[in-house]
Amino acid sequence: MDEFVVTPWEVRGRVDYQKLLHHFGAKPLTPAELSLVEKYAGEVHPLLKRGFFYAHRDFDLLLKWHGESRPWALYTGRGPSGPVHIGHMVPWILLKWLSDKFGVEVYFQMTDDEKFFDDPEMELAKATGWAYENALDVIALGFTPDKLHIIIDTKDVEPLYPIAVKVAKKITWNTAKATFGFSDSTNIGLIFYPSLQIAVAFLPTELRGETTPVLIPCAIDQDPYFRLARDVADVLGYPKPATLYSKFIMSLTGESKMSASNPDSAIYTTDSEKVVKRKIYNAFTGGRPTAEEQRKYGGDPEICPIFHYHMLFDPDDGAVERVKSDCKSGTLLCGECKAALFEKVREFLTRHREMREKVAGRVDEYRLGAKLQ
Amino acid sequence: MDEFVVTPWEVRGRVDYQKLLHHFGAKPLTPAELSLVEKYAGEVHPLLKRGFFYAHRDFDLLLKWHGESRPWALYTGRGPSGPVHIGHMVPWILLKWLSDKFGVEVYFQMTDDEKFFDDPEMELAKATGWAYENALDVIALGFTPDKLHIIIDTKDVEPLYPIAVKVAKKITWNTAKATFGFSDSTNIGLIFYPSLQIAVAFLPTELRGETTPVLIPCAIDQDPYFRLARDVADVLGYPKPATLYSKFIMSLTGESKMSASNPDSAIYTTDSEKVVKRKIYNAFTGGRPTAEEQRKYGGDPEICPIFHYHMLFDPDDGAVERVKSDCKSGTLLCGECKAALFEKVREFLTRHREMREKVAGRVDEYRLGAKLQ
Known about the structure:
By secondary structure, chain A is an alpha/beta fold. The first copy, chain A, contains 18 helices and 9 strands.
């Protein structure tokens, strides 16, 4: 087994997701939860069915709570430090689906403060600008302002701060240091920031004035944040947030996670068709060095980012299975497989850009702070 | 000379104010500054003239700036953890005088968050409640809403947070620890809090969109906060805050500073006349054990809280000088001196309570957050 490291601030090596689950102490997603999802949603989203979301904390309890017609909300976020890539959008697609199928509201935190604290080169106005830009990518999924509440930290802190204050009192420097890997030279903004990330988990309860747990769909590396959030919830008498954990989106270069420092490792929603085509055609694959060898021995879809993207973006189970078996058998060559993926991604991006343009300039209609004024 | 300790979180022993000045590296207030005050204000307030405010940073530059008709603002604050005593009100009286005479606006921060972070027993709702209560004592000095902007941290954080974020990025854990005496078990709220205290110093510049330095009248123990604020101002390109430092208000028990844990050490604005009378009559004095000895040897006004209060509350220089010389000569006995002080305090408190009642329920008219909405 390769060595690997997963923390909220670093992902390195080839990730063993089962080992990681065991290490964090979260639960695997089982047929029991999926059948409850099917019961309430009428179907199971491919990202759940195909095991991209594969672990959780208290998702079973949340589904039970939903079955009792009790209120809950969805919560996720993004650190706005640049353009959104389609890897970011995958969990948001599930978010939108959950919101639609279960009829619940979404709290979406844009942590421009965190990105500013974390990057010595980042200007605050730039991070806030990216927050507005990225918010368009979320809204473009088809959200209406009654279902999506965007929180840009430096703009919408008012309803959040009194909760963050209660959270902050329960977290010592020692705990923060151990949980988030802070050092003596960490700035006091970054040290305080987890209070704001945790506070959103309790915001629906405060705003509604009744117990309203949240479900947080996010990548598994965020678990330390929300494990701490669950401890704090207990102490403060808020409902513990439930979580739904995904694996990472593979890098086009074949690494376990895309790297923000290598733009060729990901497809951005702002990439031109030409760039998208180039990135896909230059991507690492699980194929053999020559077409001849591929026909003879077949490829390995498990390590292939191209197959990974088919799995993420094609709702047709049969089609995905065909890609897989044709790759393994050697019938499908990487070139054709890439061409097919390009078509799917092109279609997705075209639709997304149309939607994005339609909602341009409308972020404030979705901002929680603006709604509460 | 007695040993003494002065930090923002502890005052112990008999304070040597000249030594302290030298230790902190602030400047003594000199006739040069006072004559500029007289030039612009038409008079010099007793609290300046009598040396209760005795030190500063850049007050001379601020007066020069004022002489050039350039804008500035006043800034001070209070940690709302209980009722206000008349010791708290003394610097606010100067604040009001400066605002009137120089025609400048006042930013008054109520740090309910800090008080909540700092005291394990304090509830947030209680601290915020005290913020509203204490705000009435400030407003009762006769401020109008165009001249006084109250900032209750958990209510009015919105305009402050984007500035605090910039401040926080420039302060590491190491610096915060050394400046404020934090430990490994300090909570992350208290660690972040100095950013919000410093941010107010830059708020007038942000709100007006032009360089608007602040003058901060406060007790000398606050110097470490604002020394850091001045360093950060330099780095961020904001004007350095100027400060005007007072000595501490003597405890009625004779200590250098009143103690929040001993209610008999101070007179609260909420104390009944009976209680005020008892506190004054039971106070420590610089007098002799018997009337006979007092008549023979005279008393020591320098160590006497009763004389200290005459000095703080009587605008008549001649009257204060008479108390001093009559005490020293032994003509004035402590009983008469206390009776005379009680009359002055009673009068002040009666007028203050009338004003306080008039403005009851009107705090929101003064709250910055409410005005900006």
